[in-house]
Amino acid sequence: MTGYLNLILRLAIWFLLTANFSAVNIIIGISVALLLPHSHKSRAALKDWLRALWEIVMALPQAYIEAVEIMFRPHTQEVVTMERVPPRRTPGLIFLDIFLITFTPKTIVLKYHEDGWYEVHRVQRRKKT
């Protein structure tokens, strides 16, 4: 089942890159998604995929809230933090994690460290002292 989710993720990325839903482009996208190398060693649990997809759905309202917050309340402090990658993450799930973090206006992933950390840049309101 997770193989299908991986294929769908690759197709979604293809359509985001090309922005073309013609029959020829769909055939090319399916071909590219099937021809890209994939690892059978690391199998992601369906539960992990569903959790990641649910977090993306829940990030939509959060992104709008943060965008409005930034417009009306200045965020002048910048912080770079390290966040731990959840265990047993396949490359597809790591991509979804990075997409999720970067989707919200206040955060962006600067770097993925191979030893299991994301370097995340965030803007926040200055603490009153």
UniProtKB/TrEMBL annotation:
| Keyword Transmembrane helix listed | yes
Kindly list the residue ranges recorded as spanning the membrane.
12-36
List UniProt keywords, sorted A-Z. Membrane, Transmembrane, Transmembrane helix
Q: What is this protein called?
A: Cation:proton antiporter
Query: What organism is the protein native to?
Result: Chroogloeocystis siderophila 5.2 s.c.1
Lineage of the source organism? Bacteria, Bacillati, Cyanobacteriota, Cyanophyceae, Oscillatoriophycideae
